DNA sequence: TGATCCATGTAAGGAGTTACATGATTAA
DNA sequence: TTAATCATGTAACTCCTTACATGGATCA
């Protein structure tokens, strides 16, 4: 299970509440790991019981109180231990590919609208990542301004973001390819 | 749930036993959906109870008897119904990306060997897909020999395989990029 | 007045993984 | 004789999703 570890990484980057973690999982963490608030609260509770995180009750004015979580030394060494274990590449799951192969037994052209919709979603996601990159990693900063020491955290965050960008580019290009194929098969199926 | 639907598609392409389905999920279906034999047997039982598949006991000599499953008319219409429902793109889960961001809090260079290993696995998978493509879709066949009617099933299978190829190409290129970044950060972290 | 944000959770159920179990045949 | 292939399953457990639940503050 990597959700614990994803939470540890996020809390090391910046401590926060379960709610804040859920938002980060929607945004920056979302391009390599997803989790809902229900999952996050459950896992945070377990992590607190295991002593991996420390909890601080924070009273707020004008909004509900929150619990701020931060990584404990035990959590840090749990993460270090996990980093040294080999992992296997994830198994891919693309429901859309099941549909594409299934379309052979239905009306192939009937899938065009759905594939176009997916293509648009991936294109939007790509635009969103590119905007984030332009905002957080403008060209000329970070990667090697001559003489300056690189910030490993920043560089690695950018490397992961480039992975998200490459993924969305690949998906839009592949879905274009699929659309060509579906259209070539013609409206008569 | 798409496992049922992935099984329906596979059984429509060719009827077979649970064991055979498990092997297909390891091979050709594996590049867009994975399932173990335990899962497959459980789901096949449910699908048989729901009348989505027909079962035929086949006695064999020299090997254990098997149950051959094929899609019933009810299964076919269940698939058709599902094909017309919109689906959401899958959430991505890359444990390796969690590790890459986590490396900022450990020794970044310590991750190089693990990333190289993943890169090799993706490269091997790519070679495997390319070999399958060369075998099953040699250039000059399929996509448009002038005058011949295209086989939708075949063309769609190829389109999905091209997605697997594009995915592995993207992953190897991205992991090269990550390796550059890790090496640039230097052995001193 | 209604929607969205902040903030936390419970409960139920479905999906997926890991371990265990059996047993014949065939190739190294 | 050891391992792999064929063939089917159960049991326990973990993980993930969906629905439900609360309640104040802020903005349109």
Automatic annotation (TrEMBL), chains A, B:
<dbReference type="InterPro" id="IPR005149">
    <property type="entry name" value="Tscrpt_reg_PadR_N"/>
</dbReference>
<feature type="domain" description="Transcription regulator PadR C-terminal">
    <location>
        <begin position="92"/>
        <end position="182"/>
    </location>
</feature>
<feature type="region of interest" description="Disordered">
    <location>
        <begin position="134"/>
        <end position="154"/>
    </location>
</feature>
<feature type="domain" description="Transcription regulator PadR N-terminal">
    <location>
        <begin position="7"/>
        <end position="80"/>
    </location>
</feature>
<dbReference type="InterPro" id="IPR036388">
    <property type="entry name" value="WH-like_DNA-bd_sf"/>
</dbReference>
<dbReference type="Pfam" id="PF03551">
    <property type="entry name" value="PadR"/>
</dbReference>
<protein>
    <submittedName>
        <fullName>PadR family transcriptional regulator</fullName>
    </submittedName>
</protein>
<dbReference type="InterPro" id="IPR036390">
    <property type="entry name" value="WH_DNA-bd_sf"/>
</dbReference>
<dbReference type="Pfam" id="PF10400">
    <property type="entry name" value="Vir_act_alpha_C"/>
</dbReference>
<dbReference type="InterPro" id="IPR018309">
    <property type="entry name" value="Tscrpt_reg_PadR_C"/>
</dbReference>
């Amino acid at each position: 299970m990597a959700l614990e570890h994803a939470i540890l990484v996020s809390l090391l980057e910046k401590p926060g509440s379960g709610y804040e973690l859920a938002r980060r999982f929607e945004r920056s963490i979302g391009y390599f790991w997803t989790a809902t608030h229900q999952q996050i609260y459950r896992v945070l509770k377990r992590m607190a019981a295991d002593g991996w995180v420390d909890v601080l009750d924070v009273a707020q004015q004008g909004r509900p109180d929150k619990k701020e979580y931060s990584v404990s030394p035990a959590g840090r060494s749990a993460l270090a231990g996990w980093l040294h274990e080999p992992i296997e590449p994830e198994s891919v799951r693309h429901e859309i590919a099941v549909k594409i192969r299934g379309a052979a037994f239905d009306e192939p052209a009937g899938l065009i609208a759905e594939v176009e919709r997916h293509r648009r979603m991936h294109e939007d996601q790509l635009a969103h990542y590119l905007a984030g990159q332009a905002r957080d990693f403008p060209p000329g900063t970070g990667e090697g301004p001559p003489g300056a020491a690189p910030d490993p955290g920043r560089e690695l965050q950018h490397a992961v973001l480039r992975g998200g960008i490459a993924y969305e580019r690949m998906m839009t290009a592949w879905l274009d390819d699929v659309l060509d194929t579906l259209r070539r098969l013609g409206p008569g199926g």
